[in-house]
Amino acid sequence: MKSVGVFLESKNYRDEFESFLMKGFIPAGYKITKPVELGPVPESSKYEALVFSLDKKNIVYRKGKVTPDRPGAFLAVWQRPPSDNYDGNKPIPLKSDALDYLFIFVEKHCSAITNEALVNKQKHGMFIFPVSLLIENGIVSSTKNKGKTGFRVFPPWSDNRGIAGTKIFSDSGKKTQRWQLPYFIEINDDGLIDLCKLNNILRNKCM
């Protein structure tokens, strides 16, 4: 398998992500019960949208998009409205019954000088949000709220962006980060993740 820093830059991101699952999830006892497929909304391809099932749980996958002027990473989470919808083709939020978990890959590229040499470093991780958490925080549509068509995630390395004093890591962003971080799992350079934390999120237990 290619390194984790490469698989989500590849044009064959579906195949590479499936390889990531095979390497990190299958040995831990998880089963792919519905093949990894491209997301049904073509415009979501810039977020490398995928859908699949793991142990009969429906998974929606996105890659967070880093923007130069704000902390964290942004992703779109929407679907086409029904053909008889009066708003026509206007995007609508995902419904809570459309998924069990939302997987979001995030990364950070940075440089450091070591022994007078410039070294490129990368950080990678994945948020795994259960649908109950997405409902609670108004991300997907449910009887409690109308949901959102996109939102921002804040991995541990999130910091200020852009011109100081205007594009800062705001208090509201930090508040959002607090509910997100318990569901963040670091991915190492070999494409491996903390299985204990993975099991704690997906199976509510720790191996």
Architecture overview:
- The relative contact order is 0.16.
- The chain is built from five helices and eleven strands.
- A hairpin with a 2-residue loop joins strand 8 and strand 9 (117-130).
- The strands form three sheets. Strands 1-2-3-8-9-11 form a six-stranded mixed beta sheet. A three-stranded antiparallel beta sheet has the order 4-5-10.
- It is an alpha+beta fold.
- It has one domain (4-201): 3-Layer(aba) Sandwich (Trna Endonuclease, Chain: A, domain 1), CATH 3.40.1350.
Summarize the structure.
The protein is 19% helix and 31% strand. The protein is built from 5 helices and 11 strands.
Based on Cα principal axes, name the global outline: globular
Instruction: Sketch the major β-sheet.
Output: 6 strands, mixed
Proper CATH architecture: 3-Layer(aba) Sandwich
Return the CATH class.
Alpha Beta
Q: Give the terminus-to-terminus CA distance.
A: 25 Å
CATH topology, by name, is Trna Endonuclease, Chain: A, domain 1
The unreliable regions are 1-6
Helix content: 10-25%
Order of helices and strands: HHEEEEEEEEEHEHEH
Number of strands: 11
Average residue pLDDT: 86
Strand residue content = 25-35%
Task: Tell me the number of helical segments per DSSP (H or I, 4 or more residues long).
Answer: 5
Tell me the radius of gyration: 18 Å
Strand order in the largest sheet: 1-2-3-8-9-11
Q: What structural class is derived from the secondary structure elements?
A: alpha+beta
Explain the layout of strands and helices.
Blueprint: H1 4-7, H2 13-24, E1 32-38, E2 50-54, E3 57-63, E4 65-66, E5 73-76, E6 78-79, E7 92-93, E8 101-114, E9 117-130, H3 131-136, E10 150-153, H4 171-180, E11 184-187, H5 195-202
Parallel strand pairs: 3-8
Antiparallel strand pairs: 1-2, 2-3, 4-5, 5-10, 6-7, 8-9, 9-11
